[in-house]
Task: inverse folding
């Protein structure tokens, strides 16, 4: 349920961001700012999890993940480390 709520909030945020801020109501602006802040706080955890899944799934090296995502390899590694089994992050 929480993932669904977050997915809906992300979709709402995407719709709001796509519009000219001048065309948004006060309530829409408040929702955009609030949602953006909430998602920004959860982003490091979610990104770390996503990078860890990519690393495990495709068996990509850290440099390759960096090239494909634009996130520096060491940063990607640092974000993902806590979501990888001990020692798995050192194999490649």
Result:
């Amino acid at each position: 349920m929480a993932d669904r709520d977050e997915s809906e909030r992300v979709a709402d945020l995407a719709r709001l961001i796509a519009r000219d801020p001048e065309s948004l109501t006060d309530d829409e602006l408040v929702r955009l700012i609030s949602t953006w802040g909430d998602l920004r706080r959860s982003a490091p955890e979610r990104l770390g999890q996503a990078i860890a899944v990519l690393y495990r799934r495709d068996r990509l090296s850290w440099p390759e993940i960096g090239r494909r995502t634009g996130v520096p390899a060491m940063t990607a590694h640092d974000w993902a480390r806590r979501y990888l089994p001990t020692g798995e992050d050192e194999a490649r």
